[in-house]
Amino acid sequence: MDPPARAWAAAGQALLATLAARLRDPLAGGAAGPAAAAPGRAWPAPEPCRLELHAPLPQAGRPADAVLAQALPLLLEGLPPPDHPRALAYITAPVDPFAVLGSLLAAGLQANLGLRRMAGLACAIEAQTLAWLAELVGAPALRGGLLLGGGSAAGQTAVWAALARACPGWHEEGLGARGPQLVAYASAASHHWLDRALRLAGLGARGLRRLPVDAEQRLQPETLARALAADRRAGRIPWLLVAHAGTVGSGAVDPLAALAALARREDLWLHIDGAYGAPYAALQAEPGGSDRLAACGASALADPAGLNQADSLALDPHKALHQPLGCGALLLRRPETLPAAFADAPPYYAEAEPAADPAPDPSQCGPENSRPFRALPLWLSLQAAGAQGLRASLRAELDGAAALRAALQASPAFVGGPGALGVQTFRPRAGGDAAVGQLLARLRADGHAALSAVRLAGPDETAPAAGAPRWLRACVVQGLGSAPEGLARLPGELAARLDPGAVGD
Amino acid sequence: MDPPARAWAAAGQALLATLAARLRDPLAGGAAGPAAAAPGRAWPAPEPCRLELHAPLPQAGRPADAVLAQALPLLLEGLPPPDHPRALAYITAPVDPFAVLGSLLAAGLQANLGLRRMAGLACAIEAQTLAWLAELVGAPALRGGLLLGGGSAAGQTAVWAALARACPGWHEEGLGARGPQLVAYASAASHHWLDRALRLAGLGARGLRRLPVDAEQRLQPETLARALAADRRAGRIPWLLVAHAGTVGSGAVDPLAALAALARREDLWLHIDGAYGAPYAALQAEPGGSDRLAACGASALADPAGLNQADSLALDPHKALHQPLGCGALLLRRPETLPAAFADAPPYYAEAEPAADPAPDPSQCGPENSRPFRALPLWLSLQAAGAQGLRASLRAELDGAAALRAALQASPAFVGGPGALGVQTFRPRAGGDAAVGQLLARLRADGHAALSAVRLAGPDETAPAAGAPRWLRACVVQGLGSAPEGLARLPGELAARLDPGAVGD
Questions:
Q1: B375 shares its domain with B442
Q2: Domain range spanning residue B227?
Q3: What residues bear N6-(pyridoxal phosphate)lysine in this entry (chains A, B) (predicted)?
């Protein structure tokens, strides 16, 4: 091996050692250090970024090891460790270490998945990976799709595919006169990627009708049926229903099969946003899995007619499949609707031969042109874990969340709110919003755990009101690190941080 | 270090060794092997993907090293090596090996750059990286922006920001009545990301007016001025001009300063698509750099009033900055136009405290919500190379392309067509399209080099005609591997593959 390649490999080995130490203990190398963190393994308190990153671009280069030696302590101290067992604020999961190696390999191979003729093998691996995802979640009818940069991109891509179908002439005329009449439907609990996707498509906020949810934050078919009838009477054109398998606020799963049947009857494109929750449908295939799903409010995921009935389904492998950020999956019942929406015929390309693989290039199936090899880390992870390993990780998350729920129920200090899958909302039994804010402020200061706060829409509301009560939210997406005993201790640890008045009587 | 972490590091070390061998010789580990490839280092002949990737998802997992042992030979044989010196078909560059390590680190850190409160340091590093890019290309007026998944995403994001400005009420009403009147402008040579971006925004193909180019494929301001006057007379609303710093077909650079002045007068948003070519503006800062830019048809990049006058500028760091795929940069004169277009106020988020950093979250500045740490590989690369190292790599590419141009000019077999920066078109002196096709077929069969073919718009044409002559296209984006001697030999090597009739008299 020649000297530059040798130096490169040496720098890489040093990096691997650093990352392996962090893998062994998420706080290794951080300011607090492993000793200070034990035994509670406190989440490091967030601080404003003190670093002054205002230096001009260096003129002269520096050896790679010198650059890394300066950068690494900064990064390890300044960024929260992703696999901390009390990082419960958002549905951003710790990464599978093996997928981290997959990212190294994908970057090193630099395959451009826009064109099959340059990266046919990589495209085949992406197709296999998508087929495995569909198989995993029990949705074999979803025959193909695309990996995109995240759940928002996957959802946007589905919206555009649906729009090209709903708006004949869209390629040439744009939305045209139909635009103002088009109405999409989703629940009051849906994620704002959808509002944004409709805005980016030119439809604006008025293109989305949000519908009230039940006490468990689920959209009921009769609510949708009433809205559809009213809109049709008013001359509007219903075209898209977005149902949720795991809402952002409380993890709620809509009654998917019933909504799918209604969408079919009404000729709506059904997109299921399973960014967070769809992978848990993998548990339907194991003994007791359906009961476990029902116990955590997600019986719709145990129904084989659920996800499998979607026209499109988005997953975020960087959530419950523990992939590096930057990977969203879109699966479709009719993958050929993607080229119908996205295909171009750039007049400057004039290749001599038809491609050996007659399938359309991925650059003709989505918004991107050049594309990274997003499938590689996931393809490797799926093989290393196998369906059994994946289900073990998903089961651990639901069991961890169940332990948290039980402890909250037993706690004199807290009341539980809506919660499904690995997400649970709760708040101090007394003291209202002030007590929620006080607890969050104390957690921020002492870094014991990272939680977030959400507002939820009440009955008959189409969005959470500005003054609605705030709920603390815990998202258990720690994979096999979701130890029930640690999560069961959390309510007590949080209660110790409440003012006496907030604990209630 | 405990056993899982140790096994993980060992698997990573094996991967590093494999990638280092490939770094030393791009064909190492491939089917042909280094011996067979010397001395010409033939580009491996593309074959249809023979692999049957139709196995179901494995039920049981397997050890990571077993998964890698099976996957690696497949990947190394099946994917073309990115740093092959004769991979000239597309503007996809070989990756900086140090940036590959940056990808490993970014995946391992799993920072989510959507929210500052979770990844403030990473957001600060992204901001510094963007500032360095602006400094590098001599555009200090571009004060901020965003890293996105690629050049198309960067351009789309600029289009949406411009649209939110052009269409008051866009958030609520969508395109509304203004939609059908809006006209965007670009040259006949522009990349199809723009057509797609306008379609995705709901404007359709009719929303883009393509304008004829000069003999060097450049849009001239007087052509634009005439079109603007005609459209304004007809009651249409000009809102966006996309100028090119490096077109896809021939690398052409539009007269940026003159177009910028016109755009300013006419109140158009000027987006410069510098996905490929903008980094070469870094050469304006070195002695002789402006002459070198002028000699390769890119004198507009030597003008400090060029890129610096843009409202927005897109770069693809995975091209001439040699980053892993999946990184596009958007720089803006008024970065605050991004939140004006993209900001949402999701009613379910109810954080207790205002963020320590009052800048808007990146998830409020673009189409994405969760975002990977795209800046990290680039931030590390820029420090390791320094401005001097970056300029050396860019200079090597232009010198390589100049050697190719000179050799084509001296060749009895070929005539050169339009070409600027590192891109050059050419075709056999005789034999027309058939000779082009025959040469490409022979190159595909023997794998000596990878070239592509393009059609270019002629005078007064707004797009290349279907029957326009085809040009061979060579894109020199090999960094310091763009050896002029190898590129000077290429015309002779290609001529040896022509039928006698195609060489001409």
A1: no
A2: 104-345+353-382
A3: 319
Q: Tell me: do A340 and A430 sit in the same domain.
A: no
Is this prediction's ipTM beyond 0.90? yes
* A138 and A250 co-located in one domain: yes
* Predicted confidence (pLDDT) per residue in A22-54, tens digit: 877 766 544 443 433 444 567 776 665 655 567
Distance from CA of A205 to the nearest CA of B (A): 5
- Strand A414-420 to strand A452-455: parallel, antiparallel, or no bridges (unpaired)? unpaired
Residues A134 and A245 in one domain: yes
Q: Report the distance separating Cα A305 and Cα A10, nearest Å.
A: 52
Determine contact: B233 vs chain A, CB below 8 A: no
Beta-bridge partner residues of B474: B424
Chain A: closest CA distance from residue B117 (Å): 7
pLDDT at B132 over 60: yes
Dist CA B113 CA B115 (whole Å):
6
Q: What is the pLDDT of residue B446?
A: 87
Report the C-alpha gap between B284 and B292 in whole angstroms: 9
A199 touches chain B (CB under 8 A): yes
Q: Is A354 on the interface with B (CB under 8 A)?
A: no
- B394 contact A CB<8A: no
DSSP code per residue over B388-439: HHHHHHHHHHHHHHHHHHHHHHH-SSEEEEEEETTEEEEEESSSHHHHHHHH
Give A-chain residues touching B376 at CB under 8 angstroms.
75
**Whether residues B213 and B362 fall in one domain:** yes
A208-211 and B312-315 beta bridge pairing: unpaired
- The DSSP-derived string for A95-132 is PPHHHHHHHHHHHHHT--TT-HHHHHHHHHHHHHHHHH
Provide the number of structural domains found in chain A.
Answer: 2
> ∠ CA(B482), CA(B487), CA(B493), 5° rounding?
145
Do B222 and B111 reside in the same domain of the chain? yes
Same domain, B376 and B436: no
Is residue B369, in this structure, part of any structural domain at all? yes
- Picking from B39-53, B258-272, B284-298, B310-324, which range would have the lowest pLDDT averaged per residue? B39-53
- pLDDT tens, B408-452? 999 999 999 999 999 999 999 999 999 999 999 999 888 899 999
Both A428 and A368 in one domain: the answer is no
